[in-house]
Amino acid sequence: MDSLTRVPGLLYGGDWNPEQWPEEVWAEDVKLMTEAGVNLVTVGVFAWARLQPDADSWDFGWLDRLLALCHAHGIAVDLATATASPPAWLVRAHPQVLPRTADGVRLEFGSRQHYCPSSPAYRAAAVRLTRALAERYRDHPALALWHVHNEYGDHVAECFCARSAADFRRWLRERYDGSVAELNRCWGTACWSQQYRGFEEIEPPRTAPGPANPTQLLDWRRFCSDALLALYRAERAVLDGVSPGVPVTTNFMSMAKSLDYWEWSRHQDLVSDDAYPDPADPHAHVHAALGYDLMRSLGGGRPWLLMEQAPSAVSWRPVNLPKRPGLYRLWSLQALARGADGVLHFQWRAAVAGAEKFHSAMLPHRGTAARGWRQTLRLGAELRRLGEIAGSRLHGQAAVLLDWESWWALELDDHPSARMRWPELLRPWYSALHERGITVDFVPPTGDLDRYPLVLAPNLYLVEPATADRLAAFVRAGGQLVCGPFSGIVDRHDHIHPGGPPGPLRPLLGLVVDEPWPIPDGTATVVRLREAPGPQELRAVSWSEWLELEGAEALAHYDSGELAGRPAVTRHRHGAGSAWYLGCHLGADVGRVLDPALAAAGVVPQLPGLPAGVEATCRLAADGTGYLFLLNHGSAECRLPPVAGTDLLTGAELGAGFTLAPLGAVVARLSPATTLPTTDEEHV
Ligand code: GLA
């Protein structure tokens, strides 16, 4: 078994903040945890002030007692380094610990995450605390996992203080090999007389009268991700040195913009995620699936951990809907269906004071009489029944290219349209694939493409010639590539490629873009497919382009507006494969264009013919056992065809067909002879 930690089976539990409670309550906590099947708790996330009440005094007694209690009850501990909430004494002794906004406003003590990533005082104190914890608990039998900090980049992802400015200059000196002339060239400082005579003249992109230099902004984003990563790595280095062999993670925040998670994931022993799909959003489960596929991909396909989710409502949206009965269970199973080996929560016991007292918890304010508690018990029991799936994996049938640098560059200011945002471009593509029952992996531009028959690039605004070459080689060898609009625009310095878009992708796509043609808000342009089963009319929103074909064939034309008659969607045969290009943003209609590419790549749903709203994935264990998840996100009961297997949740044989209630789920252990089509069996 490929266990994430030393804990066998699936992980179940959550953030436990015992420092907010009198110790008498702890005994009840562990008793109820045992009842619920909790086997992993995250402890100490915001306990810095309790652990270190003063610069030179420590209070570990309570944590000693707590860990002993956990161990005595067979509950393993994900021990946090507690560094996300610097205490008042540290901030008052070193006010430079507090971060500054782009407007120069100092963010005050009184919330959390109030630290400047470049503050030496903060870093020294964080490393000292981490070392103290590691030295004290490295051999503790309850310790299963180190939880570094909490949600890096949450609340404060950047700081504009003088110390950060100095750190930025140091980072720039390294990036540009000490040459300010090179920086001037790369930043295009000839525009608006922005030339620097030396690095000492450079500041972070603080609030200025008008648009900031875009390359400065792009470098700033790179720097901010690196600055936080350096902090993480400083804590991690302590843990590696003092407590080797205990896995280390920090909790990610799904598809978060501020951190380049490809780079970050290289430094995680296991990828963990905090996911808070909104019960008010009818598409929440699709967005959640996207985040879960990303987490699996960041870990190279290995099982990952849902570190936090809400048992019911959160407390930080303007209106916080609870999860209707059954939703919590279904969404928990969905994380497992997409490769998680555990389901943890924020938080174990509902708080009575503080900023999160209205946040749901595994043990609600009403205690064991609450509906929520019954849900906690039920899910715990079900996860125990599913224990054998731990370590099994699932594999994407197609790859989606994701590049944080391109995302950052795409969303810089002063572009032809401010509507071109990465999440909005990606989501319709992902939804179309999800709706068709196709599981995807995310891949960085440098990733391995050869294991996929189909690569999707909803947007590649920033593309380097090396990436274009790799994509061309992939297509030449028989792959299908589908590329979305506004791609191939700039290089890594955010300079427009010579000859205009799609830059280095031009020979592969067989076309050139004469001019972007954004579509005004609230209007749409009709796009007509040349050949298609079913309706041929699609609607483009936000974006279209004037394309000139150079070998590509048009698969669809604009049928209204100023571009009427011009090509909108193209295909270019290149070697043994094809490169498809969408010159417009097709929103919810994009699936109609993806269909022929899926067909050309031979990518078919693992389980064809499922009713709408039913999500299906299959995890495969190292011994070849398949686990089929069928989750009904719809509001109607549906009848499903026979499956040669047993439902691990109920023990029912599924060979005669079965019914899935709304929000119902089945996790079938497939009979040995059953084969589902997969593209990548050798990777199991
Ligand atoms: C984040 C944090 C937690 C808690 C939850 C509430 O995920 O990591 O500490 O604040 O949000 O939803």
How are strands sequenced across the largest beta sheet? 5-4-3-2-1-9-8-7-6
Largest sheet, if any? Answer: 9 strands, parallel
CATH fourth-tier homologous superfamily of the largest domain: Glycosidases
Distance between the termini: 12 Å
Portion of residues in helices?
25-40%
Oligomer: single chain
Radius of gyration: 26 Å
DSSP, total strands? 26
What fraction of the residues are assigned to beta strands by DSSP?
15-25%
Low-confidence stretches: 677-684
Keywords summarizing the entry:
TIM Barrel; alpha/beta; 26 strands; binds alpha-D-galactopyranose; disordered C terminus
Notes on the protein architecture:
By secondary structure, the protein is of the alpha/beta class. The protein folds into four domains: 34-43 and 270-389, no CATH class; 49-245 and 253-261, Glycosidases (TIM Barrel, Alpha-Beta Barrel); 398-601, Rossmann fold (3-Layer(aba) Sandwich), CATH 3.40.50.880; 614-683, Immunoglobulin-like, CATH 2.60.40.1180. 29% of the residues lie in helices and 18% in strands. The protein is built from 17 helices and 26 strands. The strands form five sheets. It has a nine-stranded parallel sheet, with helices on one face. α5 runs parallel beside α8 (214-242) and α10 (284-298) packs across α14 (422-435). The two termini are 12 Å apart. Alpha-D-galactopyranose binds at residues 150-151, 274, 276, 308, 310, 314, 346, 356, 359.
